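# step 3/5: fold
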Amino acid sequence: MRISHLAFEKIKSFEGCRLRAYQDAAGVWTIGYGHTRDVRRGDQITQFTAEEYLRMDIAECVAQIETLGLELTLPQLDALVSFVFNLGIGRLRRSTLLRYIREGRSADAIKKQFRAWVYAGKPPRKLKGLVTRRDWEANRFFEEY
């Protein structure tokens, strides 16, 4: 399964693109659109490579989500891929969000769980960009396909 073009573009906008390696809000070396695998200080890439990394990273997120055994609509997959891209599959696996999805809880309850994940850094602080991202994910999860 693949995510929508809308989700691809949203992830690009949430992540932003930087062609030189930098440390993100959590101190992780990052490049392109949030790519972190094997990134080191001083690394540089092209725009083309940034988009290739993004496609690979999204495909990995989709594969990880597929192991959860959920039956998802395209909007639900979009929302969860954005979440996992940002926070990792481990956090989703251990989350109340996933438990609520599995239990079929109300839209309000599930949206509240998405919106709980808005803190980053040391010490953790609420980030406006994460509030915007979680709002989009929470609403996208319940859009009609």
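# step 4/5: annotate
Helices lie at 5-15, 47-66, 74-87, 89-93, 96-103, 107-114, 128-141.
# step 5/5: archive (pending)
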